[in-house]
Specification:
Strand content: under 5%
Radius of gyration: 18 Å
Distance between the termini: 28 Å
Shape: globular
Oligomer: single chain
Strand order of the largest sheet: 1-2
Number of helices: 9
Number of domains: 1
Largest sheet: 2 strands, antiparallel
Number of strands: 2
Length: 246
């Protein structure tokens, strides 16, 4: 969603005009806004199946509230090129992870000591708000290797944590951008609500198409499709970020 929003604001598609120096912050904030209801719906489904490890999700999620605020504030202090560069690296790292498909082990007894939960929550919150993403790519390996959560419950639990982190980040973006010039019409702070609402509606209306397509393709094929797309988008953003120095 973030690369798509970059395109919308760079081209003023649909009349969405954003000052050049604010494009990255608005794209990340708007994407994060959409993450919240999406995560809530997902967690509701997972919870009915008993997949959410609440004993890990709640304490880590509460800590991620602080990380979400910090991540949003850091994002607003960084130059736009730095945000593009960071998000580009994030996409490339995700592409590599999908391509190599590393084996992840879990299922050990949960390790929920304070010194494990606090840095996990802070990392998920900061990176989620900073990059405008759900934060699952950060939360999942931390839950597997730091908290010792089993693979069967890690996706559901990370999504529950993301509700906390994304909510904190979204609220910070909304409060930080009040009365700021250069934001698109229909915004609350840095969150472009006028763009976020149809994105949410579109996701609901097309989710069945996505799941049907997913079921027709092998997991490996899907991974390679996503890996190639993310690598191309990430490379473009990295080059844009580096353009400031050349």
């Amino acid at each position: 969603m973030v690369p798509f929003l970059y395109f919308v604001y760079e081209t003023s598609f649909g009349g969405a005009r954003v000052e050049p120096g604010l494009i990255a912050a608005v794209a990340h904030a708007t994407s994060l806004f959409v993450v919240v209801p999406t995560a809530i719906v997902g967690v509701h489904s997972y919870a009915k199946a008993g997949r959410v490890a609440w004993q890990a999700a709640i304490p880590i999620g509460l800590v991620s509230l602080i990380g979400g605020v910090l991540g949003a504030r850091i994002a607003l202090l960084l130059p736009e090129e730095a945000l593009r560069f960071a998000f580009g690296l994030f996409l490339i790292a995700t592409a590599v992870q999908l391509a190599v498909q590393p084996e992840r082990k879990g299922g050990k007894p949960l390790r929920l000591e304070l010194y494990r939960m606090v840095p996990t929550g802070l990392a998920v919150g900061i990176f989620s708000a900073l990059l405008g993403v759900g934060g699952g790519i950060i939360a999942i390996p931390l839950l597997l290797y730091v908290a010792g959560l089993g693979v069967d419950r890690v996706a559901a639990t990370s999504l529950a944590i993301i509700i906390f982190a994304a909510t904190a980040g979204t609220a910070t973006y909304m409060l930080s951008g009040n009365a700021l010039a250069g934001l698109p019409a229909g915004s609350i702070g840095y969150v472009h609500v006028a763009a976020a609402l149809p994105l949410m509606l579109g996701a609901v209306l097309t989710v069945r198409l996505g799941t049907n397509t997913n079921q027709r393709m092998s997991t490996r094929a899907l991974q390679w499709v996503f890996a190639v797309v993310l690598a191309v988008l990430g490379g473009r953003l990295v080059l844009q970020g580096l353009s400031r120095f050349f």
